[in-house]
TrEMBL record:
Primary location group: cytoplasm
Protein name: Acireductone dioxygenase
Keywords: Amino-acid biosynthesis, Cell membrane, Cytoplasm, Dioxygenase, Iron, Membrane, Metal-binding, Methionine biosynthesis, Nickel, Nucleus, Oxidoreductase
Purpose: Catalyzes 2 different reactions between oxygen and the acireductone 1,2-dihydroxy-3-keto-5-methylthiopentene (DHK-MTPene) depending upon the metal bound in the active site. Fe-containing acireductone dioxygenase (Fe-ARD) produces formate and 2-keto-4-methylthiobutyrate (KMTB), the alpha-ketoacid precursor of methionine in the methionine recycle pathway. Ni-containing acireductone dioxygenase (Ni-ARD) produces methylthiopropionate, carbon monoxide and formate, and does not lie on the methionine recycle pathway.
Cofactor note (record): Binds either 1 Fe or Ni cation per monomer. Iron-binding promotes an acireductone dioxygenase reaction producing 2-keto-4-methylthiobutyrate, while nickel-binding promotes an acireductone dioxygenase reaction producing 3-(methylsulfanyl)propanoate.
Binding-site list for Fe(2+): H89, H91, E95, H134
Keyword Transmembrane among UniProt keywords: no
Catalysed transformations (reactions): 1,2-dihydroxy-5-(methylsulfanyl)pent-1-en-3-one + O2 = 4-methylsulfanyl-2-oxobutanoate + formate + 2 H(+); 1,2-dihydroxy-5-(methylsulfanyl)pent-1-en-3-one + O2 = 3-(methylsulfanyl)propanoate + CO + formate + 2 H(+)
Any one biological process term the GO annotation gives: L-methionine salvage from methylthioadenosine
């Protein structure tokens, strides 16, 4: 299953290190579900022809997909992109990512506006709901390959915090109030 924890934000340090509290404060899948984050574990070696992935894509209408390799020498404007990914932001659509190789962290805001760090490994597929504040970073292994899924034509536009005036943001907030 997926490992997640509340981050130690008392010092800045390297964004790629785990930033666990001492003692560690784990976050359960249940808690992640309450803030609208869904997770599936798949067999990444089958990703090009995986009936389980197909089923999820059909069920949720994830018609679009591409694959991005985030690595210094293969991704154009690597530093710039990583910097952008780590700015706290939201989207007006769900962000759906499937880690095919390597590792990465997604940080999401808790109900109480704390940072939760989600450790993504090979085979983890995650959905972040439209309107949730989040950010992304590589870990100290500096490499990940991920499938990006989308309902229809992809829109990559990110709105950095503060972006509270969007209807999608307000709708998202309403969904986490009533659980
Ligand atoms: C985003 O919007 O946060 C991203 O696209 C993260 C990088 S994709 C693995
Ligand atoms: Ni994003």
């Amino acid at each position: 299953t997926l490992e997640a924890w509340y981050m130690d934000t008392s010092s800045d340090g390297d964004q790629r290190s785990p930033h666990r509290l001492d003692p560690n404060q784990p976050v359960s899948l249940d808690e992640l579900e309450k803030i609208g984050v869904s997770h599936w574990k798949l067999n990444p070696d089958l990703y090009e022809n995986d009936p389980e992935l197909e089923r999820i894509r059909k069920e949720h209408g994830y018609s679009y997909s591409d694959v991005i390799t985030i690595q210094k020498d293969t991704l154009p404007n690597y530093e710039e992109k990583l910097k952008m990914f780590f700015e706290e932001h939201l989207h007006l659509d769900d962000e759906i990512r499937y880690i095919l190789d390597g590792r990465a962290y997604f940080d999401v805001r808790s109900v109480g506006d704390r940072w939760i760090r989600i450790a993504m490994r090979k085979g983890d597929l995650i959905t972040l709901p439209a309107g949730i504040y989040h950010r992304f970073t590589l870990d100290d292994t500096n490499y990940t390959k991920a499938m990006r899924l989308f309902v229809g034509e992809p829109v990559w536009k990110a709105y950095n915090r503060p972006a509270d005036d969007f209807e999608k943001r307000q709708k998202y907030l309403a969904t986490i109030q009533c659980v």
